[in-house]
Amino acid sequence: MIHSLEMLTKEIYSVNDFEDDWMMKEKVMKVLQIFNVEKAPDFPEYFEWALTHSSYANENGSISYERFEFLGDSIVGFTIAYKAFEMFKKMNEGELAKIKAIVGSEMVLSEVSKKIGLADLVLIGKSLNSAQLDELNSIYADVFESTTAAFFLNYGIDRTVELVSNLLSEKIYDAANKKIFFDYKTILQEYTQDHFSALPEYIMIEESGPSHKKKYTFEVKINDVVYGRGSGKSKKSAEQLAAQAAYERLKSI
Fold first, then answer.
1. Domain 184-252 carries which CATH code?
2. CATH says 5-176 is which class?
3. Rounded Cα gap, residues 119 and 206, in angstroms
């Protein structure tokens, strides 16, 4: 039987701990509920750090999720590849690679993160300005990976593969059956041609990170007006996220 929130709370933290930072402890409890955890983690602080964006960490002197996201990215990628390999025994390596790329994309992982409630738990600093808020989908995808790493470090690889498989199996199936379409650049182009008689323009405004882990940020302009911004691990994903942000903004106007 799954432990109640109160029971897990008593197992993990003392009363004094909660007096120090009730908000964070409550967020950790919610992550454990989302992941259907029955046993208290040995290292609950890993989940705290896995929820903390660098903007919040810098403002509050805490640890951010970057290292956990680095580890979680590999675990999620491995799990998708393994699950697809097991599910679709007649597919060749090229077809399996496409499934892995689609399901492991920032767009899909951010969607899952929002659906299961992880996105609501992320700690983001006040310094993140309105333009940077267009990067939220990238942050939500990162947190899916970082909390996966925190889960792995507490519960081991077998339970982690089972967890990620359960969360992503539907997306893996949809990707294999070509039910996932997220070419927002094409969608935005069609929209702007119909409504503005113009084409969107993509401009790279930032390139950061070490060579093995680059991060690109793009703006998309329509008639010289910025409508969206996106950041990703590749130029293509950053452009797609910028197009998504612009399209969603235009549809809300």
1. 3.30.160.20
2. mainly alpha
3. 25
